[in-house]
Design a protein that fits this description.
It contains 17 helices and 20 strands. The chain is an alpha+beta fold.
């Protein structure tokens, strides 16, 4: 099992910073144990490492002030959004100050004519889309959880719509960032393209708080399509479903979402969401476009599904039916955990080239069966990304050891297929051992960039860069 390694603590510096920030921020600065543990929590099996205090800034200037104080005393700074990350990103292995950005939740500006908006990092994706609805616009990146846009940017999140709209790296135009020195910088303008110097926006997107704290985000928006339709179809095997996905992508059908649920996940979703889906491998799809366009896309996909033995193909443009189906998909995690009450769900996150998807999913399913795990599988399979969820009794050392072995085996398998150990969850603490395997010497360049920008290693230490 990945260990959350404790790093050396700067006790003198931490004590000084606690005193300064308490005096400056008053009630917006908290040191209670429950609050600290909440902000050091992790939603996976990595143990909690709580910060020494949590501060709730209200604007960029206050974030900069916190960072300047911490920089002066060489004390770690850890950003926090909604706490939905899965790889120990918010842990504080060297202690330090957690900067909770949830109060910075203002939608600063919407430029409807330019299809962009400016938001603070604490704004959640659901909050933004509710605000935009009346203007005929939406933000398409949907990781499932109602995550903060700051956290989604920091981890380069994606989700169900990535097959059509890309990931956060494709939808962030510019950032305001507080550097490790406490300076406030902007990485770009609102222009849709630029050749002005290094692409600092892309450097910060996915940096997981290790290079600075994001305090404002300029995002691309999309017009709400004239028509949307959803479809579902069942298959005899996961392999047949994956083959249908591969053919759909290769034919260039512009699906907005294409999600795989294996038979066990469908069983769990039926019980949890009170549905009556056939308990067999299932593809859920969504099409965006004109009325004629979405009908044509559904018809084309229906033909492909039939070729691979798909049955029960249905599609609907009813908003109520679509929302019901996709809400069930988003509830798949909780539905799956309910299959084994008291167990911990360990979510994997590999992504492979679409031509290797079927092979990788089949191998994972066979290995899970060999190990005797209850382990539902879901995937954003349009871009080759899928998740297994072994349900583990954390009090059973044998199960924990087997799960640890499986996670490592699957990461290695995906990398050997030209894929990645993380399609969307990020590296954090949990995936650090696999980063060098995947990228080799490129990790040395990452470490050099980290050292140049943050020489005292105060920004979210112990994340991404492998330990020496």
């Amino acid at each position: 099992m990945v260990q959350a390694i404790d790093l050396p603590r700067n006790e003198t510096g931490i004590a000084s910073v606690l005193g300064v920030l308490k005096q400056r921020f008053g009630e917006k600065f908290q040191t209670g144990q429950a609050i600290r543990e909440q902000h050091g929590h992790t939603t996976t099996w990595i143990r909690t490492q709580a910060p020494d205090a949590v501060v709730y800034p209200q604007n960029s200037d206050e974030v900069a002030e916190v960072v300047k104080v911490c920089a002066e005393h060489k004390v770690p700074v850890i950003g926090f959004g909604t706490g939905t990350s899965l790889e120990g990103h918010v842990n504080a292995p060297a202690g330090g100050i957690c900067v909770d950005l949830t109060d910075m939740n203002e939608i600063v500006a919407v430029h409807a004519e330019d299809l962009d908006c400016v938001v603070q990092p604490g704004v959640t994706r659901e909050q933004l889309n509710t605000y935009l609805r009346d203007q005929g616009l939406f933000f398409p990146i949907d990781p499932g959880a109602n995550a903060s846009l700051g956290g989604m940017t920091a981890t380069r999140a994606s989700g169900t719509n990535a097959v059509r709209y890309g990931t956060m790296k494709d939808n962030v135009l510019a950032l305001e960032v507080v550097t490790p020195k406490g300076d406030v910088i902007r990485t770009a303008s609102r222009a849709k393209k630029s050749s002005a110097g290094y692409d600092l926006t892309r450097l910060m997107v996915g940096s997981e708080g290790t290079l600075g704290l994001i305090t404002e985000i300029t995002l691309k928006l999309q017009g709400i399509p004239e028509a949307m339709s959803s479809a579902r179809v069942s298959f005899d095997t996961v392999d047949a479903a994956c083959q249908a996905v591969m053919m759909t992508i290769q034919y260039g059908i512009p699906v907005a979402r294409i999600e795989l649920l294996d038979a066990l996940t469908v069983k769990a979703v039926n019980a949890y969401s009170k549905l009556t889906l056939p308990e067999a491998p299932l593809l859920l799809l969504e099409f965006h476009g004109s009325e004629a366009g979405v009908a044509e896309q559904a018809e084309l996909f229906g033909g492909i599904a039939e070729e691979f033995g798909g049955t029960g193909f249905e599609w609907t443009s009813s908003a109520e039916e679509r929302n019901k189906l996709w809400q069930a998909r988003h509830d798949a995690y909780w539905a799956s955990v309910a299959l084994r009450p008291g167990a911990k769900g360990i979510s994997t996150d590999v992504c492979v080239p679409i031509s290797r998807l079927s092979e990788c999913v089949n191998a994972a399913q066979e290995r899970l069966d060999e190990l005797g795990f209850i382990a539902p599988i879901v995937g954003h399979v349009g871009d080759g990304n899928f998740h297994t969820l072994p349900l583990i009794d954390m009090d059973n050392p044998d199960e924990v050891a087997k799960a640890d072995e499986f996670v490592g085996w699957l990461n290695d398998l995906a990398i050997s297929m030209g894929g990645t150990c993380t399609g969307e969850h990020g590296i954090g603490q949990g995936k650090r051992p696999y980063l060098v395997k995947e990228l080799g010497g490129a990790v040395d360049m990452m470490a050099a960039i980290k050292t140049a920008i943050d020489p005292d290693n105060i920004m979210n230490p112990g994340k991404i860069i492998p330990a020496d």
